[in-house]
């Protein structure tokens, strides 16, 4: 952790803490001085204790250390999510060109390229047809994502997020397989703030497939979790998703009036919140869903 001490020193001075307040009973005074000068490494165990004294989360520390910029992986994820949710094909194309020009492509680079190609193609199709129902994903790109996910023996949030962002690209059997696999880990992450929006997005993205396959038990379980994860105000978007999909579920259970009321409330709320692109997608699915129900 060489040079991290320089950032620790700056945070400490900005907060007005003396060295003794931060380092007492963790490391010696002489070691602390040289650590803040970037001359020493320090174990992760001790580093976490120092951050606790400074009242700084480790994610925030790296954000500050990186001169108030996201690290590359988080920056990519945020940019991808923003562009995809806004149907900003031009921004996705720009990101794709950046990935193509990596001098030393890695497995992750190839995954990102495949992810971007799939999203660009699907959104282009949606722009022309106003629905995703008959869009077919590129098998080669799906194979890249699937192989990457299957090769990882135990998923952490990065793999969960990769699947969540691309769940609709896989065939229905693959989606349900991965979904059931991930449900086993959800109870372990329910109290981890960073995991809640990732799992919330996963549930919202997988529910259309569960409805198409009429997996009623899985729908009920997914809705229970979506309701649980969306109780806090900060996760209000997922509460809207819960209301939308619980409306569809109510229609399936024979309560069309109450169900459609929930669906339309959710769609209108998204439009009010300037999330019209997401509302258009959900409205298109609702139209298809109603056609199947009436048929």
Number of helices: 17
Order of helices and strands: HHHHHHHHHHHHHHHHH
Gyration radius from CA atoms, angstroms: 23 Å
Counted beta strands: 0
Beta strand %? under 5%
Helix content range: over 70%
Biggest pleated-sheet summary:
none
Basic shape: elongated
End-to-end separation in angstroms reads 63 Å
- Low-confidence stretches are none
**Structural class by secondary-structure content:** mainly alpha
The overall pLDDT average reads 89
Description:
By secondary structure, the protein is mostly helical. Helices cover 74% and strands 0% of the residues. The protein contains 17 helices and no strands. The chain has helices spanning 4-15, 19-23, 29-36, 44-54, 58-65, 72-85, 89-100, 107-129, 139-151, 157-166, 172-183, 186-189, 195-212, 216-229, 236-252, 256-272, 276-294. α7 (89-100) runs antiparallel to α8 (107-129). It is elongated, with a radius of gyration of 23 Å. The model has no long low-confidence stretch (mean pLDDT 89).
